[in-house]
Specification:
By secondary structure, the protein is of the alpha+beta class. It has one domain: Ribosomal Protein S5, domain 2 (2-Layer Sandwich), CATH 3.30.230.10. Helix content is 33%, strand content 23%. It has a five-stranded mixed β-sheet with strand order 1-2-5-3-4. Helix 2 packs parallel to helix 4. The chain starts with a strand and ends in a 30-residue tail after the last helix.
Length: 128
């Protein structure tokens, strides 16, 4: 099997992931998973698809992530890994879809409107 290349996005984070058969090593921006995502929650988010399919020790993952915050980046990596696993074996898709890992979360930050302090926040109303 050759290297599988996929892209995952979340908010403004973009993750390019390369998956190939290996021993389960996950590298993000040339750093180990534990070094890049300090929080245990973000580490488990990133490898959630592999854990669900019980293939953590079968594939090596190399990811390039840019933009967004830590959580958005972790979720972008999660989507990209899930897409790669579906490319490897299409029979994985129903299990990943059941957990909601195949669907791209399209929610973005709402833009700030002119004449307002934030996207929806109006100026304080004074009766007198």
């Amino acid at each position: 099997m050759e290297i599988i290349n996929t892209i995952g996005r979340r908010k403004t984070a973009i993750a390019r992931v390369y998956v190939q058969p290996g021993k389960g090593k996950i590298e993000i921006n040339n750093r180990e998973l534990k070094d890049y995502f300090k929080s245990e929650i973000h580490q488990s988010l990133a490898k959630q698809g592999m854990v669900i399919l019980k293939v953590e020790n079968q594939y090596d993952v190399v990811a390039n992530v840019e933009g967004g915050g830590i959580k958005g980046q972790a979720e972008a990596v999660r989507l990209a890994i899930a897409r790669a696993l579906v490319q490897v074996n299409p029979e994985h898709k129903p299990a990943l879809r059941k957990e909601g890992l195949v669907t791209r979360d399209s929610r973005m930050v709402e833009r700030k409107k002119p004449g307002r302090r934030k996207a929806r926040r109006k100026f304080q109303f004074s009766k007198r």
